Amino acid sequence: MKTKLLVLITILCLVSCKESNKIERENEPAIYGVESEDKEMNAAIEKANQTLNDFNIGLSNPKAQSQALKVAFTDSNGTEHMWVGNVEFNNGKYSGILNNDPEFVTEYKAGDKIDIDSSKISDWMYLENGKLFGGYTIKVLRNRMTDEERKQFDAESGMQID
């Protein structure tokens, strides 16, 4: 259930954002690119990093579900930000399972166990009773959706977003 929800979140967060570039993939969710100079997205990433301790609290909260970190993966082909689920925090280090197949980065695939460099975290999220905590980049993308897309996203994700 956790993986299914996180994949759904990934798909829905990347659906039809007005200010993004869409890449269609056969049998994979579409990807929407965001420019590296996007001030609103960069502010969301900064906020996520400033509040990462709130994610750590969520990891130890038995009511929290679907904990995930969004991580920047970079190789010679570029940078992709992808969600890592089943997150564990041991000895000050995060690890988890990659939820997405990348489009450009070739070193990883969905299902890979990932050791996470904290400096590469671009967002975090968890749900408690359906309410989204964190998810700062999700909120930016959701706000860029049309009213119809936002309604569909809200209905399909089941998340309560402030």
TrEMBL record:
It holds the Pfam family DUF2314. Residues 38-160 form the DUF2314 domain. InterPro entries: DUF2314. This is DUF2314 domain-containing protein.
